[in-house]
Write a structure and sequence with these properties.
By secondary structure, this protein is mainly beta. 4% of the residues lie in helices and 48% in strands. The chain contains one helix and ten strands. Strands 2-10-9-4-5-6 form a six-stranded mixed sheet, with no helix packed on it. Strands 1-3-8-7 form a four-stranded antiparallel sheet. Strand 4 and strand 5 form a beta hairpin.
Length: 114
Amino acid sequence: QVRLTESGGGLVQAGGSLRLSCAHSGSAVNTNSMGWYRQVPGKQRELVAVVTRSGSKHYVDSVKGRFTISRDNAKSTLYLQMNSLKLDDAARYYCNTLGRTLSWGQGTQVTVSS
């Protein structure tokens, strides 16, 4: 079954860093504009970073300058490097195409402590 698998989350102190990975068992990461999304309980899932098919990268204002999205086509894997983490970055992080066309994976939990 083709699916997305996110990993790399964990507990980190504010100001710390994490690198999230998103592997896809097919080739969707390589052929689509991909995004990282995050969700906290009671709120809608929000898009925080995008890498387009052409390689352009876009970020929501709250993570600009701190998060970097990238992908390795050879590994069909999407990454999110998160630096200078803040308490507000705590959430469950997911990856998907820009149009949310794939079945959601389980996500990976990011917890930020003060």
